[in-house]
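FAQ: What does the model actually see?

It sees only this:
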Amino acid sequence: MARPGLTIGQAARAAGITRKAVRVYEARGLLPAAQRTTAGYRLYSERDIKLMTFIRRARTLGLHLDDIRAVLAIRNGGTPPCATVRDLLDDRIAEIDTTIAELLALRETLTGTRQRADECADDQSVNVCGIIEDS
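And it is asked to produce this:
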């Protein structure tokens, strides 16, 4: 039997996320609105914790909240979302590959600039710094 209701702090700890993340997920429509006590405290069920844990794992894989919402909508519609998840993972891999290529190009530029920096003289006539101005 499920626990009667966990506070936001208890639920967040159980799912391995922060209280702020719980509020964000609820505000963004990833979690259903929590039940409230008469004092206004949010209460979460074991099902909510499983959903929070799923969202945390999806975020760990780099999926965006909008993507996770789409996956949940597909699942809530009664269809397994595996094809969509595969497509989303392929998209993230492509994004990461692009970022890696951009970072490698930046590293190459920085390395070349650093090598030229040893030739820079402090007595040059420049506005601020010849190392950057000449790059």
